[in-house]
Amino acid sequence: MAQATYLTQSFSGDKKTTLTMRTDRWWLEPFLTGAGFLAFVIYTTWAMFQAEYYWAGSYLSPLYSPLLFVDPSASGAPPVAHAWFGYWPKWWPNFIPSSPAILILAGPLSFRLTCYYYRKFYYRAYFATPSACAVSALAQKDYKGETHLLLFQNLHRYTLYIAIFYIVILTYDTLVSCFRDGRLGVGVGTLVMAVNVILLSGYTFGCHALRHLVGGRMDCFSCASGQEHWGHKTWKKVTWLNERHMPWAWVSMIWVGFTDFYIRMVSMGIWQDFNTWGN
Ligand code: FES
Description:
Layout: H1 2-11, H2 28-50, E1 55-56, E2 59-60, H3 100-104, H4 106-114, H5 116-127, H6 156-176, E3 179-180, E4 183-184, H7 188-204, H8 208-214, H9 230-242, H10 245-267
Antiparallel strand pairs: 1-2, 3-4
Helix pairs in contact: 2-5, 2-10, 4-6, 6-7, 7-10, 8-9
The structure holds FE2/S2 (inorganic) cluster.
């Protein structure tokens, strides 16, 4: 009741307001999630502009896949035969690194940034409107985020298809990584890439938009006539993943970065990849 009174005062513009009456460490979660995501953004931005060492033997970094063009003169770049459209285009401006990652990162980024869970944590961590439950917002009175400025977030249901496409591509990359010089084999890098696909699938197939889709886009199952609606069974399966969406989101994101890092280290000759090819 005390908190309810406080919030009423806060939003009515009462001068005696304080940030919150909570005594626990409510700031810890927004701090950790904000710092963790910032670290990921810094790493992937660096890796994207680096444009080198994203290929090792038969391993392709997920940050560079699908590989549309390739500049074979770059250190640690794959052979041209692996690029969908061949050599790096001549019209590319000189002042931008010839990095295949620049061409494709908008796809997965658009999916992550519009994800319902990501929105929750980055609104809290970066915009503080509010930072946590029962904590005063920095800007609340005229907040129109979801009805004006942030309407593009509704595109999430469409970016879902992009994310599924990337999972197909990364699965293909993992299969391709099992062949080196025409020989079938497996290495630690193959396993790292396979785990990456599994974790990304766990995150993507637990998406709220996907759950709504497979449930037959129904808003009320109990309103459906007859037996249990066919989509309800699939909906319940997706719900298992959806209830764990937050850990899937974090672990899959960290593993994408680690997969790139692992391949980069092997490509630079800093780490040894144990594999059945003996190289
Ligand atoms: S809600 Fe998170 S991926 Fe769709």
